[in-house]
Write a structure and sequence with these properties.
Blueprint: E1 4-9, H1 13-24, E2 29-35, H2 38-48, E3 52-56, H3 64-71, E4 79-83, H4 87-98, E5 103-106, H5 112-129, H6 137-140, E6 161-166, H7 170-178, E7 188-192, H8 199-209, E8 213-216, E9 227-230, E10 236-242, E11 245-251, H9 263-272, E12 279-283, H10 292-300, E13 304-308, H11 318-325, E14 330-332, H12 337-344
Parallel strand pairs: 1-2, 1-3, 3-4, 4-5, 6-7, 6-12, 7-9, 8-9, 12-13, 13-14
Antiparallel strand pairs: 10-11
Amino acid sequence: MKKHTVIVVDDQRSVRSMIKRWIESDPNWEVIGEAANPFEARDLIVEKQPEVMTLDVHMPGMDGIAFLKKLLPQYPMPVIMFSSSTTEGASITLEALEAGAFDYVTKPTGTPESLTEAKEDLLSKLYECLNFNTANLSASVKPSGNSGNNGKQKANFKRKFILIGSSTGGTTALRKLLDDVDESFPPILVAQHMPENFTALFAQRLNSELKVQVKEAKDKELLQTGHVYIAAGNYHLGIQKVGSEYYTRVFQSDKKNGHRPSVDVLFESAIEQEIAGNSIGVILTGMGSDGAKGLLQLKGQGCLTIGQNKETCVVYGMPKVAYELGAVNYQIPLGEIVDKIKEIGSL
């Protein structure tokens, strides 16, 4: 049986050896090359033509971000970044995702649990790379236009809440989607699979680029129009009603579908608060099935639902499961989702 192929790029030999052992513990994968810097990696890619590359962000000669920007336009391929969980590491990783990296794995802290978690995360994402839609790569590396909906007619929303779930490829997709959102939009709550230290930084970056107010959600914040609330890493995000007003609910309970924040938890909170018929649910690119069942429940309670189509997803996983369950009213390209929200938001 032919094995899937990977090259490992990291300036530390011990790290390359560890990653190689992890990958080759799965009989379906083979490391066909190791590189200590981007120049060696470039030569390996030309010679070996691997299916996937793992890449450290800190390397001598050229950092991983600059390497990605030079490499991907010429050799489109899925790249998994290895990132630290520090604020600096999170910032660099977000830059890498904007530059077209497929996904990232957080470096282990050295505990047995963190080593196991990182290994399992890497192997899972390797398989997801096989579904990577390289046709979307060129779009993902383009800078945001930050149109801010300039010159477009604002919608008259009757629906009061917009709920969005996303995972792999979601940071880029969200940025593009929110580019066309203006201050007339009802509160938007987002569950994006992302660890601690990443979500606050991600929200800050969006807030600095977009017209609407974007923030990492805190508990018991009044939901306001023109505001986007990003679920905090390692916390679930939901909605709670106090008196006649609706607020965020940020809490920790068990992971759902292996995630915290979980998209299903966000969607289910709208059902619990009996606001599904007053909401729009959106499921974007991502691997796995988180959010699919919740979206189906939302639809059953009168929520209008949108799924990102296969052609524009980095990974057509969560939207595919939702679509096959019958949870999606409208399956459309990413670039059409905001217009659809405006169209159905008045229904």
